[in-house]
Amino acid sequence: MGLFGFLFNNTGDDNSYEEYQAEEEYFYGVSKSELNEIAESCRYGSYVTIGDECLYYHFKSGRGHQTNHQEFIVRDGKLHAMCSGGYPGQLNFPDIKFMNICNERYDFY
Hints:
Number of helices: 3
Low-confidence stretches: none
Largest sheet: 4 strands, antiparallel
Shape: globular
């Protein structure tokens, strides 16, 4: 059916959209919608996507003309950045701030 298949469904079934909305993705027990709220609250943050064993955080550059992607994995119940544009101890880089907020709020098991 695909992502927007419910829009082109001519069967008259009114439950298609509700069923699509009910399918919430989870990353180690945390819902994608909660992670997206954190992503939007961070400076330049846009949204998250969930991979096989990793979480992708998408954020804009300082001028807003470029979208960057950061991959996080889980070790010992905490998010860890695979490769960051910031340096250790830097708190204002968007992906590091996102990681710190998530690690304060959730245990990923």
